Amino acid sequence: MDFYCDALMYFHSGVDTSGTESIEIWGDGLQTRSFLYIDECIEGIRGLMTSNFSGPVNIGSEEMISIDNLAYMVMSIAGKHHPINHIDGPLGVRGRTSDNRLISTTLGWAPTQPLEQGIKTTYEWIARQVESSHSRKQTAHGAIGHNRRFAAESVPPQSSKVFTSGNSLS
């Protein structure tokens, strides 16, 4: 899951828009994993919590994707392309997916959103958060600049008056 979020943030951040910076992936990139969109995870958990079922159960997606293909998918959604550099590192198991038979038969629940749609939705959300944060910083910077100018104009030069934490003159 960390790779998924890190990759989305990386591709949205605008880092190296020339596309020459490579993405490092441990191993050959052929190891497979499955990812689940958070809204569907919450839906599965809610269903489990409101059921009478007691015991361990998998809540996940059975849609498998290689780590290389996940990187390519995220790049495509971000409209960017970077070379992939495979490096030595821990590989974990070669393939991992969720066996959802128990939750499907017990609760009738199964994820419905394809990985690509979940990544698009998440990428768009990250883009809005980054833009909103950028706008708030610009607004805050302008307000701070305005308040400094107002404070400087309010206190005569060479004044012995000092602002305290209560904003009263002493």
Count of spatially separate domains: 1
Task: Give the helices and strands as they follow along the chain.
Answer: HEEHEHEHH
The order of strands across the largest sheet is 1-4
Task: Give the helix level as a range of percent.
Answer: 40-55%
Q: How would a textbook summarize the main sheet? A: 2 strands, parallel
Q: Give the class from helix and strand content and strand pairing.
A: mainly alpha
Mean pLDDT: 77
In the CATH hierarchy, what is the superfamily? NAD(P)-binding Rossmann-like Domain
Q: Cα distance, first to last residue?
A: 56 Å
- Strands, total number: 4
Q: Overall 3D geometry?
A: flat
For the record, the CATH class is Alpha Beta
Number of helices: 5
CATH architecture, by name, is: 3-Layer(aba) Sandwich
Strand content: 5-15%
Unreliably modeled segments = 1-5, 148-170
The CATH topology annotation reads as Rossmann fold
Our Rg estimate from Cα atoms comes to 25 Å
Q: Outline of this structure?
A:
The protein has 170 residues and is mainly α.
Fold and architecture overview:
By secondary structure, the chain is mainly alpha-helical. The protein has one domain (2-137): Rossmann fold. The chain contains five helices and four strands; from the N terminus they run H-E-E-H-E-H-E-H-H. The protein has helices at residues 2-12, 38-49, 67-78, 101-107, 115-154, and strands at 23-26, 32-34, 64-66, 84-87. The strands form two sheets. Strands 1-4 form a two-stranded parallel sheet. A two-stranded antiparallel ribbon has the order 2-3. The longest helix has 40 residues, at 115-154. The radius of gyration is 25 Å and the shape is flat. The termini are far apart.
